[in-house]
Amino acid sequence: MKIITVIGARPQFVKAAVVSRAIDKYNQSDKQIEEVIVHTGQHYDANMSDVFFEEMKIPKPHYNLHIGGGQHGAMTGQMLAKIEEVLLQEKPNAVLVYGDTNSTLAGALAAAKLHIPVAHVEAGLRSFNMRMPEEINRILTDRISTWLFCPTNTAIDNLKDEGFLRKTAGNKYLVENVGDVMYDAALFYKKLALPSGEISHILKEANHKFYLATIHRAENTDDKERLMNIISALDKIADNVRVILPLHPRTRNIIKQYNLHFKHIKVIDPVGYFDMVTLLGQCQAVFTDSGGVQKEAYFFHKPCITLRDETEWVELVERGYNFLVGADYDKIIQAQQELVIKEISFSEQLYGDGTAGVNIVQRIIEGLR
Ligand code: UD1
Ligand code: UDP
Asked: N or C: fewer beta carbons within 10 Å in the chain?
């Protein structure tokens, strides 16, 4: 059996690491699956790509399409054409895609048009905000997938609401809550994650008392007012408690364009997964607009202040682990002040039991037999 994995953006490397390891484990007892990795090139800086392959021991991509930067349409279109060429040459039994980036949609669409079954990891998530490029990508990908691997029951319910589980003779897909591969990743790699010298130094300097922040979503970076509000609020907070911000290149470029400045925030380059796990493990709370980092805050039992108006991870908000504040200066400051006096106990297990990767591989093998 040959599976082609299409990945290209940072969060996909973290997710694919888990499934590749599960494939490897499977092959140790009974060699059945050949995984061919296609890197679209969407993320290309060493600290946005190579570092994940090295640290997480992801097999080297067999193909790198070098398609990064530019407008969404052009990027997705170029990926579609190049992925199709690879699929025609490799003739896989299935194509595996992750999450909701342009690489996800291009991989799924190229496969579906060639009638190759698609496995979508992180299916069923919805923000219900069609202005987000991610929402468009995930809805379209789900629609043409054969295996819809959901990370939560909320995701299953979203798909039910869209009519996915309605019984019709033509239904030939699997919708299942297999758990969240990012939870598997956090459990596995936190045992291996040694921080770099640079992060150790920064942590010492902060006296191990700090907040971790990330900002990169287009809805914040491409709106000057929202970005200014977020930066001013974090800068105000950083007046008292250190705020460490590993800055995504998209945000760094835009901040330069807008001529914005940081006063107190400790801005650093994007870090590898091991440093990120160290920061998540030691911080007091997280401020983020990232999808993945919201969940990781929960995995590491840290409160998360989410710099978005809505989230796909609603169960975290409903249970009081995650606070949605948008890009509102006052709400961000208020949330931080409330955190100082709030005790949150993290007791539930909302994202499976750390076996999502193995579950996914098993279902694909069963489906292809
Ligand atoms: C993409 C995903 C987003 C995901 C994020 C993860 C889409 C539509 N968006 O957003 O869902 O949350 O990845 O990080 O697919 N750049 C560099 N070096 C890099 C990568 C990017 O300089 O290694 C710069 C380029 O100027 C590029 C810009 O960042 O144009 C944006 O990159 P792009 O991949 O288009 O979108 P992201 O914002 O990273
Ligand atoms: N991440 C990282 N270094 C960083 C920022 C994020 O390793 O400097 C990891 C993070 O721990 C998570 C993944 O990248 O595993 C999330 O990716 P990102 O926030 O870029 O995308 P999103 O999840 O929003 O799509």
From this structure: C
Cβ(249) – ligand 1 distance below 6 Å: yes
For residues 44 and 66, the answer to whether their CB atoms sit within 8 Å is: yes
Cα-to-centroid distance, 76 and ligand 2 (Å): 21
Q: What is the CA radius of gyration of the chain?
A: 20
What is the Cα–Cα distance from 324 to 335, expressed in whole angstroms? 9
Domain 2-180+352-368 CATH (choose: 3.30.530.20, 3.80.10.10, 2.40.50.1070, 3.40.50.2000)? 3.40.50.2000
CA distance 257 to 267: 17
